[in-house]
Design goal:
Layout (H helix, E strand, L loop, with lengths): L1 H6 L6 E2 L8 H9 L5 E6 L6 E10 L4 E6 L8 E6 L3 E8 L22 H20 L7 H11 L4 E4 L2 E4 L3 E3 L8 E3 L6 H24 L23
Helix pairs in contact: 4-5
């Protein structure tokens, strides 16, 4: 009904007659047909009997409508949500524009651009290099204590493996059993203070390992009490 009257409106306001609650479905259909239009609602609410604005939506599932009321051209709209059952009638002031903010948004899918294979190859090479470096820092031929010492030294000093020996700063070699006195200068020589520094760091790391092991307390297993023997005496007839 609202659609036919809207086509003949010629820019004039069109009023939909008051609908009883039994005809709420017809009112709902009429409102759905003018989403995006500017309308004036007459409601049963005494606090706000008339609301004029843009019909934002009319939901047939919740039986609710939302009206966007613009108080000024620069301010965001105020949305009023009310049940369709509270609408006595509505007046169509202007039809929906052909292009408005309520229309479906345009396709915003970004264009597919070319991918630099050189950049991808560089990232892959860098990742492989990091994995190789991490693998080179783990020596499967030594025990846990030697590996822990290597990890401790590498936190503060540049360290690498040379067979089963730890090379610190490319100048000091720490051989098994990896104590301070096992540190010696490499083939190129090393200043005394550098050698002493590495020996001190090695001794401190080993001391830290020893302190950590002393703090690990193995709980004592309580002894199981012996079950006393039960003497029942001689059996009769035995």
């Amino acid at each position: 009904m609202a659609d036919s009257k809207r086509q003949n409106a010629g820019g004039k306001a069109v009023t939909t007659p008051n609908m009883a609650p039994s005809n709420m479905l017809a009112l709902e259909s009429a409102l759905v047909g003018v989403i995006g239009a500017r309308i004036r609602l007459q409601t049963t609410h005494s606090s706000q009997p008339n609301i004029e604005g843009t019909l934002f939506t009319a939901c047939p599932f919740t039986n609710l409508v939302a009206i966007a009321v613009f108080t000024s051209p620069t301010s965001p709209p105020v949305h009023h949500i009310l049940p369709i059952s509270s609408i006595q009638n509505f007046t169509l002031i202007s039809t929906p524009p052909t292009s408005n903010s309520f229309a479906s948004p345009p396709n915003t899918t970004p264009a597919i651009t070319s991918v630099s294979t050189a950049a991808l190859r560089a990232r892959a090479d860098a990742a492989v290099a990091r994995l190789k470096e991490a693998a080179s820092r783990k020596n499967k031929a030594v025990g846990k204590e030697a590996q822990d010492l290597f990890d401790g030294l590498s936190r503060t000093l540049p360290t690498r493996w040379d067979g089963n020996s730890i090379v610190v700063m490319d100048s000091v070699v720490v051989s098994a059993p990896y104590r301070g006195e096992d540190c010696r200068a490499g083939n190129g020589g090393v200043p005394v203070h550098t050698l002493n520094r590495v020996r001190k760091v090695v001794d401190n790391e080993r001391k830290r390992f020893a302190d950590r092991e002393r703090k690990v307390v193995v709980p004592a297993v309580p002894a199981v009490p012996a079950i006393p023997a039960v003497h029942t005496g001689p059996r009769k007839g035995g």
